[in-house]
Design brief:
Layout: H1 11-17, E1 25-28, H2 35-44, E2 49-54, H3 57-66, E3 74-78, H4 84-90, E4 96-102, H5 107-111, H6 137-143, H7 146-155, H8 162-175, H9 181-191, H10 204-215, H11 217-231, E5 232-242, H12 245-259, E6 279-281, H13 290-295, E7 303-309
Parallel strand pairs: 1-2, 1-4, 2-3, 4-5
Antiparallel strand pairs: 5-7, 6-7
Helix pairs in contact: 7-8, 7-10, 8-9, 11-12
Length: 311
């Protein structure tokens, strides 16, 4: 796959929000096939630098082809953005002028059955973004204790039928271990009443929960965002697109922490914490237009938040 086969979400809005300039150092923490990065590279010019990060080696290889024109300006990192500080240190980068996160799962992963993320196409129950990791979705489903499974489905998937689905999984795996995505999909469909399905697939929330657990997505997001804020140069922008409430809640909470000029208890009359605001909010929450949602239905849940470093 050497050609772009997906449509970048909130493309124009994110590019404009990064406040790109010639010679800028920009970090794309979720490179994918390079849809956003291609335009970033055009705008930062030949004196600019892009740090391109992705956990998926296939994505990196395909992005290299798509961005070959700018090869000399790009630092590729087959890594997790939770290791942002180590990536900066390794490549002798002190500060960035812009850091971009496009969270969640890409169309590429959903469309490739062998990755194990797809609900509609049968594949191995895998869900690893980075194939060097050992834990798979099959491991979680087949080996986690009942309470742990229920917690994952409830907390990470916000699945109302978490307990029923968990019980059914426990019964099923006593007879036969789960190996394929369609086996799990069939089980979930048998548990959730069709009248409750609405417009979405009944297995979406459980698959989301498993993906988050396998890739430690929320843990990595907290660390990656915190490091990104501290690695931004004064005047630099951080742009984050999230796709579900758990991600957006983390982004909103962390940004709010860095907007504040004081972290003392609310009942303390005089501030003595010494904390100073490091970010300012740029604009309002941005969501896709109706025309974008029509053209790209996968964008419908996207939310974009933008902040600027002030010290």
């Amino acid at each position: 796959m050497s050609q772009f086969s997906h449509t970048p979400v909130l493309f124009q809005e994110s590019i404009e929000s990064l406040k790109l300039a010639k010679g800028s150092v920009i970090v794309d923490c979720t490179l994918g096939l390079g849809g956003h990065s291609k335009e970033i590279l055009k705008q930062i010019g030949k004196t600019g630098k892009l740090i391109a990060i992705d956990q998926d080696e296939d994505n990196l290889q395909n992005a290299r082809k798509n961005l070959s024109e700018w090869e000399e300006q790009i630092v590729y990192a087959h890594d997790n953005f939770g290791n942002l500080r180590q990536i900066f240190k390794k490549h002798k980068i002190e500060k960035a002028d812009g850091i971009f996160f496009d969270l969640g799962i890409s169309s590429v992963h959903l469309d490739q059955a062998e990755k194990g993320f797809s609900i509609r196409h049968s594949g191995p129950l895998d869900m690893r973004m980075d194939r060097r990791s050992s834990l798979t979705a099959a491991d979680v489903v087949n080996t986690y204790a009942e309470d742990a499974l229920n917690r994952i489905f409830w907390e990470y998937g916000e699945e109302k039928f978490a307990r029923k689905i968990t019980n059914k999984i426990i019964e099923h795996r006593k007879v036969k271990k789960f190996e394929r995505t369609d086996e799990l999909v069939d089980l979930i469909e048998s548990v959730k009443p069709k009248v409750r399905w609405g417009g979405g697939h009944p297995a979406v929330l459980v698959f989301q929960a498993l993906r988050i657990e396998v890739n430690r997505e929320l843990e990595v997001l907290k660390k990656g965002l915190e490091d990104a804020i501290n690695l931004l140069a004064k005047g630099g922008r951080i742009v984050v697109i999230s796709y579900h409430s758990l991600e957006d809640r983390i982004v909103k909470k962390l940004f709010k922490k860095y907007f504040s000029n004081c972290h003392c208890p609310s009942d303390q009359p005089i501030c003595n914490c010494g904390w100073k605001a490091q970010l300012k909010k740029i604009g309002k929450l941005i969501t896709p237009s109706q025309s974008e949602i029509k053209d790209n239905p996968r964008s419908r849940s996207a939310k974009m938040r933008v902040s600027e470093k002030i010290i």
